[in-house]
Amino acid sequence: MPNVAEQSSAIRSYYEGLAKGVFRAVTCKACGGYTFPPTGCCEHCASWDVTPVELSGDATLLLASHNISPACHPRFEKIAPYVYGHLRLKEGPIVQGIVLGVKPTPEDLKALFERGPVPVKAETLQMSDLPVIAFRLAG
Known about the structure:
This protein folds into two domains: 4-54, no CATH class; 58-137, no CATH class. It is 19% helix and 37% strand. The protein has helices at residues 4-19, 106-115; strands spanning 24-28, 34-35, 50-54, 58-66, 83-89, 94-100, 118-126, 131-137. Strand 5 and strand 6 form a beta hairpin. The longest helix has 16 residues, at 4-19. The protein is globular, with a radius of gyration of 16 Å. It comes from Kaistia dalseonensis.
């Protein structure tokens, strides 16, 4: 089992990559599953035998909604109101993130819903304290 320093280096590596537009995860040598964001063990089978990997950034937006008001954390106040969604990464994990390119209005959210699952591409938003992952509608 890895020690605390190894675990914190996975977290540090994730944020350092995110700041450069690199989306990091780990893949499990035991079951082949992806864990995102990366941790010291597999979220699927709990194996500690994981390897760092870079993700494509390609995903599918499954559903979207608007954020609550006020923003859930002070780091998001500058961009509120915004759209928030559940997305399936090309590599498999389902994640949550900010969705760019959609206005947080009932009309725009309804139109997005009616389109069904849509392709998106990951990008980095630099907040005041750390980078966060966001997804922009593709095409």
